[in-house]
Here is the input.
Amino acid sequence: MEIINTIGRRKTSVARVYVKPGKGQIIVNQRELKEYFPSEILQTTVKQALATLKMEADYDVTVNVEGGGSKGQAEAIRLGIARALVTINTESRPALKKERLLTRDSRMVERKKPGRKKARKKFQFSKR
Here is the structure.
């Protein structure tokens, strides 16, 4: 089997994910997962698609991720891994879809509007 290449996005993060058969090693930007994401919650987020299908030790994952913060990057990687697993085995799609791992979260930061402090916050109104 060859290397499966997919892309995952979340907020402004873009993750290019490469999945191949292996021993369960996850490399993010040439570093180990535990080194790149010290937080246990983010590590769990990244592994969620593999854990749902009980395939943590079956595939090696290499990721190039850029943009956004750590949570956005972790969720972008999760989407990329889920898409790769569906490409490998289409029968895994219903299980991943049930966990909502194949849905691209389209929520983005709202832009700042002119004449306001932030996107929605206005300057204090003074009657006199």
